Amino acid sequence: MITAINVPHIDTNSQSVSVVSVEACVGDRVDKGQEVCVLETMKTTVSIESEVDGYIRIVLAKAGDEIKYDRPIIVISSTESEYINEKEYTKPKENSTDIKITKKALLLAEKNNIDIGLISPSGDLIRSNDILLAMNRSENFIKRELTNIEKGSLDSLSFHKRHVVTAYLERVIDFKDVVVFANKFQKDNGLIFNPFFSILTWVFVKTVCKFNTINSYYNDSNSEVVISKKVNLGITMDVSGDLFLPVLHNASDLNLKDFINEVYYMQKMLYKRELNNDQLHGASICISSLAAFNISKHVPIIAPNTSFMLALSDFLPFTSANSDKFSVVGCSYDHRIHNGVQISKVLRYFENQLQNLTSS
Questions:
Q1: Domains recognised in the chain with CATH numbers
Q2: With 70 as the cut, is the pLDDT of residue 138 above it?
Q3: What pTM value is reported for the model?
């Protein structure tokens, strides 16, 4: 018996799905209920299981492919030698109920490598004019490979989407005393830059030492929480429009002055593109700031193998008319291993530590 596994209707707002992974190869023996591929849309990710016991005979997609609903993705037979007409599954049928196309349009599409599955017909079927319009649109675009930086961002986004149950919490904090403290620290230590952000970040590191459970991530494969013994701080930094996450390893071992100098040095080396591979990987906890872009609030993406990212923003607009410096301090966290009560305590402790530092 031949069984074709077709793409199910996952999301009513889309016409196709993306293939995340294919978990079986041609010739593999599979059991009923065994995962054979993973599909996703913008809203959800779905594991597709084999409907029968048998052997994988045809695989019609690979990771990264876009496939329309009701199309076959894997074909299974009950025996290894059972005859299968591959053309029945690998070529679109002219009289197919899901795609109707004229012979002239089909020949034109095949000649110019146009995927008819991605074409919306102007009428009741795809005609040659529809193919010509698609060819014209394709000539107006330039395709290129992802850069290494874009691939890194894609990895972070994929981790955030597929492996994290994200929640967000925020607290409004008055940084007035921190601004005064930073100005005095800069003058007393002869710094050429204002250490305001680095001071906030150093206090955040001390907060992580108090609540070491946020210095962790959930390992899906082993169903376990992995807590780092060291605070390896990832700090988002922008260089000419490219976003990096350099890592300050063993950040909790540094006093305030050394910490400020290390952050400055790391940023300087990043601008020169001279950081090594170790300095760009291995974060256990992260912090992000968009204050330089006058953003008053943002929700950060959780980086791979972490479960918490603090988000700093610019001072709120209403503070410009007085001496107060209120700002939204937010954080994204993995709700599988943290809850709102715990995270609210982290933010409160962070604020209290700032007050202790600036009043000492």
A1: 1-91 (2.40.50.100), 92-143 (4.10.320), 148-359 (3.30.559.10)
A2: no
A3: 0.61
